[in-house]
């Protein structure tokens, strides 16, 4: 049975929570401060930590969270917080790795639900770690591909959303990073997959029409309203509504959207009756909404309502190790789309240039370039001569490990081993640094070292 550690300086609350969770069949230990928690964590393994955010000791719940994430990044931590601290708690979930937060006074059913979700995630992570690297060389959900640490974190958060059936999601990321792909994947693999998926770009609709588009209107509500019209919330009922570029939504419409999210009902423009709706809202933006809140162009309460479980899509320049996977995936995709085009392979020199480029337009830019090359090139091989001029900028340092491939070919294991050895050599045998160079977790590096019979000391300089 799963073991849980609860940390709080309120003895009465500790006792109550321990009693509730023991009734659920869990093994529960309790301690009164963060330092005591760290001491017991050094001696004993736990599947979940539940910690108060603020305690009387100087070593607070956020400090405990940071220390846990430093030593055991996969150990889920639930943060208990008062309403006044909700902003800080959301930030801990968004930026510092807390699994979720429990708002005080803690509701028993919410506690049971979030504990169950956290433990399910812990179990899923363990099963993934136990799988052989050969069985899952990379993760792919539809057109979303990646094997870097940043992409693994994104996939893990997507899994949390899918398992919870969350009805409000905020996706952030630069233009072209794949936010709409993620929204569609959440619908396709979620509990509402057989219901509608409706998408709207909030920045593309005139301010005078946006409310009519979202909430509908009654006949005669305004000059051109010649008939009753259902809004997108009604059309998407029981399904998913994707609000792209939510940061461009007019401030007065934001107020009405907040009401819909809180009350689960809409009123058509010019109408007098409220209409109940059951819609999962996925919002996306390339803007800094926190900055928009400070500038009073985005409502703070709407931001926190949407930002329950945030999904940040990293720009391509932050995970260049995924570029070969993306390139190969896109070439296979284009081969299916353009049956008459010649098959294409990318030379190591061209792939090196792709990896060194900073890709300001992110994956969309990479896809557009490859599509153009694929369609226009009369060669079967994409070499550096085919690469657009702006990508030929070699002012950035190369990040690829170079080695010769013999005429008879080479196995994938040999290539991976070569990369691992090169990273260990560059890091002087330091596993944490080598894992960072490779864009994988330390645990995955250790698994590969064991597989290939490598020892850290063999790579330390004399």
Characterization of the model:
The protein has a 5-stranded parallel beta sheet, sandwiched between helices. Strands 9-12-15-8-16 form a 5-stranded parallel beta sheet. Strand 1 (3-7), helix 1 and strand 2 (27-31) form a beta-alpha-beta unit. Helix content is 44%, strand content 14%. It is of the alpha/beta class and 462 residues long. The chain has helices at 11-23, 34-43, 61-71, 86-95, 108-130, 149-164, 179-188, 210-215, 232-235, 251-263, 289-294, 300-306, 323-337, 348-356, 362-376, 412-426, 431-438, 442-452, and strands at residues 3-7, 27-31, 48-52, 77-81, 100-103, 139-141, 144-146, 168-172, 197-201, 216-217, 229-230, 240-244, 265-266, 275-276, 280-285, 310-312, 345-346, 381-382.
């Amino acid at each position: 049975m799963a073991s849980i550690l609860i940390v709080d300086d309120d003895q009465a609350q500790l006792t109550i929570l321990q009693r509730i969770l023991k009734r659920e069949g869990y093994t529960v230990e309790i301690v009164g401060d963060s330092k005591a928690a760290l001491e017991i964590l050094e001696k004993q393994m736990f599947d979940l930590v539940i910690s108060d955010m603020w305690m009387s000791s100087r070593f607070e719940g956020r400090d405990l969270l940071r220390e846990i994430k430093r030593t055991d990044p996969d150990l889920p931590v639930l943060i208990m917080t008062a309403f006044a601290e909700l902003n800080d708690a959301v930030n801990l979930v968004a930026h510092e790795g807390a699994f979720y937060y429990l708002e005080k006074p803690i509701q028993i059913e919410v506690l049971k639900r979030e504990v169950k979700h956290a433990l399910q995630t812990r179990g899923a992570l363990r099963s993934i770690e136990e799988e052989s690297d050969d069985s899952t060389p990379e993760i792919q959900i539809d057109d979303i591909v990646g094997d870097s640490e940043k992409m693994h974190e994104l996939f893990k958060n997507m899994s949390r959303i899918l398992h919870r059936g969350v009805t409000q999601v905020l996706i952030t990321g630069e233009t072209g990073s794949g936010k709409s792909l993620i929204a569609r994947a959440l619908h396709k693999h979620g509990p509402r997959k057989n219901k509608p998926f409706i998408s709207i770009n909030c920045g593309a609709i005139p301010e005078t029409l946006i409310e009519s588009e979202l909430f509908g209107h009654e006949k005669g509500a305004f000059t051109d309203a010649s008939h009753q019209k259902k809004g997108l919330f009604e059309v998407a009922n029981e399904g998913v509504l994707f609000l792209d570029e939510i940061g461009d939504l007019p401030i007065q419409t934001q107020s009405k959207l907040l009401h819909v999210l809180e009350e689960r009902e809409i009123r058509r423009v010019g109408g007098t009756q409220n209409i109940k709706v059951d819609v999962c809202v996925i919002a996306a933006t390339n803007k800094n909404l926190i900055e928009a809140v400070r500038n009073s162009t985005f409502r703070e309460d709407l931001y926190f309502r949407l930002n329950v479980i945030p999904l940040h899509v990293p720009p391509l320049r932050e995970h260049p190790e995924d570029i070969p996977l993306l390139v190969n995936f896109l070439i296979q995709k284009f081969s299916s789309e353009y049956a008459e085009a010649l098959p294409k392979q990318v030379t190591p020199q061209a792939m090196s240039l792709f990896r060194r480029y900073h890709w300001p337009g992110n994956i969309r830019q990479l896809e557009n370039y490859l599509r153009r090359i694929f369609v226009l090139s009369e060669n079967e091989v994409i070499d550096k001569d085919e690469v657009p001029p702006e990508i030929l900028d070699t002012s950035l340092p190369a990040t690829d490990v170079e080695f010769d491939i013999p005429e008879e070919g080479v196995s994938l294991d040999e290539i991976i081993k070569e990369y691992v050895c090169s990273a260990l050599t560059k890091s002087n045998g330091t596993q944490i640094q080598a894992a960072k160079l490779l864009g994988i977790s330390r645990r995955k590096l250790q698994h590969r070292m064991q597989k290939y019979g490598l020892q850290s000391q063999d790579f330390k300089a004399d």
